[in-house]
Design goal:
By secondary structure, the protein is of the alpha/beta class. It has 5 helices and 5 strands, in the order E-E-E-H-H-E-H-H-H-E. The radius of gyration is 21 Å and the shape is elongated. It starts with 8 loop residues before the first strand and ends in a 24-residue tail after the last strand.
Amino acid sequence: MSDISDGDAITAIDEGVINSMALATWVDDKTIDVTIINGRNSRAIKRQRNRAVDQLKRKISRCKNGSYKHRRLIKAKKKVQSKAKLALRDFDHQVSHKAANHVITHRSGAVVPSDVRGIECYAKKRIGRHSRQQLSQCSRGIQERYLQEKTQLELVHQDECYFSQTCPMCKTHKRGVPHQMGH
């Protein structure tokens, strides 16, 4: 990795719910530069939207269809959803801008995000309702598309299946065996 010239660096991206993106780029043989982009604001916007929409839905369910109050509550619900959509769009642009700055300053020639597309479908039995809701509301694809547009680089997804079960030192697959020191 020491002979990295302009455009040969690789930036790896790990996307998550709490931190929108964690970017890592090799600087030299022993140094990795990491940028972590916090996603707390996005979670707050979604939580506020979900709570407001839920309260309005309860009120709407008690109204007669087509009444003045019903129409007014529907309009208020659409306004809450619209404001949240605009705030999330702005947040996604901010995240992708910070990520693009990391990629451009390190002159990365390739961007490799972890492939977590459709994870909410595969994890239905293993996680609870609230975690599944958070996963389904993540804007991973949108942020990746914005990043691709800003950097003009093709994103090559890396599959994460069983990745944490492989020892990074000896590259062997661990099957319930505790990691041995001294690799």
